Amino acid sequence: MSYDYLFKYIIIGDTGVGKSCILLQFTDKRFQPVHDLTIGVEFGARMVTIDGRPIKLQIWDTAGQESFRSITRSYYRGAAGALLVYDITRRETFNHLASWLEDARQHANPNMTIMLIGNKCDLSHRRAVSKEEGEQFAKENGLIFMEASARTAQNVEEAFINTAAKILQKIQEGVFDVSNENCAAIQQNWGAPWCLLCDFNIVLCACSRKGMGAICLSSGFS
């Protein structure tokens, strides 16, 4: 299926906050209560439509363990969006947000859109972090914010769609340079196209292709 843009997302946050469950709910519309810990990086993709434009979201789910932090950092490059996830029932996952955000700001493009997600809002009876605290952290750090539940699917779709809409808005406002047509070669790899003329990690790059109408974004993220 053709698309106008390919946006790379990265999902970050502590171990056990539900990153893989959020990804699975978005891509497969199902919840898997028992999920093995992510080792390194997992991958998912889905087509969406924003303002009538077909967009492919390519989503990289990262391991939250400190031992995999260096691997996670290598995937920031080229990311158009990030979902920064914490567990509303575990205070420590909220307390670690500043560290994750510092990593993202250091290793990613400064124009990357970051969505803060307070996951497991279906467990409000076990809440350890108020919604107001999440809102305040997002406001102080220029993030989009919403609480969600991978179990019930509440706000999962909205989190990905709203992030994509913000990225598209930045493209339309000229924040990213989409006029570069030097990056014209793509091929299928792992079931998803990636540019042969860009760094492997710049999976966001939606190259200009005759008959496909996609535009190269690599220059805006290199």
TrEMBL record:
PROSITE patterns, per the entry: RAB, RAS, RHO
Membrane topology reported for the UniProt record: Lipid-anchor
CDD domains, per the entry: Rab2
Swiss-Prot/TrEMBL keywords: GTP-binding, Lipoprotein, Membrane, Nucleotide-binding, Prenylation
One Pfam family in the UniProt entry: Ras
GO cellular component terms, semicolon-separated: endosome
InterPro entries reported for this sequence: P-loop_NTPase, Rab_GTPases_membrane_traffic, Small_GTP-bd, Small_GTPase
Main subcellular localisation: membrane
Residue stretches in coiled coil: none
A GO BP annotation: regulation of endocytosis
Transmembrane segments: none
Example of a GO MF term: GTP binding
Location in the cell: Endomembrane system
PANTHER family: DRAB11-RELATED
Family recorded in the similarity comment: Belongs to the small GTPase superfamily. Rab family.
Protein name from the UniProt record: Ras-related protein RABB1b isoform X1
Organism listed in the record: Nelumbo nucifera
Lineage: Eukaryota, Viridiplantae, Streptophyta, Embryophyta, Tracheophyta
